[in-house]
Specification:
Layout: H1 2-21, H2 29-38, H3 43-56, H4 60-73, H5 77-87, H6 96-109, H7 113-128, E1 138-143, E2 146-151, H8 152-169, H9 173-186, H10 190-202, H11 206-217, H12 227-243, H13 257-270, H14 288-292
Antiparallel strand pairs: 1-2
Helix pairs in contact: 2-3, 3-4, 4-5, 4-6, 5-6, 6-7, 7-8, 8-9, 9-10, 10-11, 10-12, 11-12
Family: Belongs to the MS5 protein family.
InterPro entries: MS5/SDI1, TPR-like_helical_dom_sf, TPR_rpt
Pfam families: TPR_8
Length: about 290
């Protein structure tokens, strides 16, 4: 009886270990690779074992994706790209979408912007053809260990946002603007609004940019309460103000002190009864030639 109790206790401890460390149980190449990755924190050993899992046909979908992620972490990005291209044919149809997402991150990491744009456009074509999420309206995604549902609409907006950012890396701000506007029409958020504002600033369309960024600060968009988005909107507004030239119809602004004093003296000669405080310069055109002196 006691032996059974100890055996049961040992099994529970083993199960809790796998739950805590989020590693599968067993002794296959894939399981050993995950143990090296998550428990031993040895990425190079994990990569070797992931290769063994792929060659042995052991959970190839997960092994290829996980290996590419680990390779990215240790700056072996080019190898990860080649691995996905070479072995994705061994993976199931259901795994192709997540492999594309990993590939996009890898392209972004190593600056392959053209490849990133091509793959993002391909993903958008799949959406238009109704083939995204393997034909389902939603999919289950993970973030920070939590599961949540993503709709086709949200996925479309996310891909458009990534495409807009890729165009910005190529300084094609007009294309980026078009893409960001479409993304905002589908599923607006504060982060994409900030990127749209930056596109408009780069095109010297300051009034439009100000309107977009102020919507973030006024809390009109989802995600406006995120401190990072608010800070970025404020920074972009400051950049906008530094780029924008002073209005031409307000000649009393940003003038040198000696110029203002000379103008005061001239105004007092012509209208001695005036207050010494400068009014709006409604008569400035009448004495433009004298100012030139």
């Amino acid at each position: 009886m006691e032996r059974n109790s100890k055996k049961s206790s040992g099994m529970k401890e083993k199960e809790s270990f796998h739950v805590i460390h989020k590693v599968p149980s067993g002794d296959t190449p894939y399981v050993r690779a995950k143990h090296a990755q998550l428990v031993q924190k040895d990425p190079e050993a994990a990569i070797v074992l992931f290769w063994k899992a792929i060659n042995a046909g052991d959970r190839v979908d997960s092994a290829l994706k996980d290996m590419a992620v680990v390779m990215k972490q240790v700056d072996r990005t080019e190898e990860a790209i080649e691995a996905i291209k070479s072995f994705r044919g061994r993976c199931s149809k259901q795994a192709q979408e997540s492999l594309d997402n990993v590939l996009i991150d890898l392209y972004k990491k190593c600056g392959k912007v053209d490849e990133q744009i091509a793959l993002l456009k391909q993903k958008l074509r799949l959406i238009f053809q109704g083939e995204v999420f393997n034909g389902k309206p939603t999919k289950t995604a993970r973030s920070h260990g939590k599961k949540f549902q993503v709709s086709v609409k949200q996925e479309t907006s996310r891909i458009l946002g990534n495409l807009g950012w890729a165009y910005m890396q190529k300084t094609n701000y007009m294309a980026a603007e078009v893409v960001y506007r479409k993304a905002q029409m589908i599923d607006p958020d504060a982060n994409k609004a900030c990127n749209l504002g930056l596109c408009l600033i780069k095109q010297a369309r300051y009034d439009e940019a100000r309107s977009v960024l102020e919507d973030v600060l006024l809390g009109k968009l989802p995600g406006s309460d995120d401190i990072k988005s608010r800070n970025r909107a404020e920074e972009l507004l400051l950049e906008l103000e530094s780029r924008q030239p002073p209005p031409l119809d307000l000649p009393g602004l940003n003038l040198e002190d000696d110029f203002v004093e000379g103008l005061e003296r001239l105004m007092n000669e012509w209208a001695p009864s005036r207050s010494k405080r400068l009014p709006i310069f409604e008569e400035i055109s009448a004495f433009r030639d004298q100012l030139a002196c």
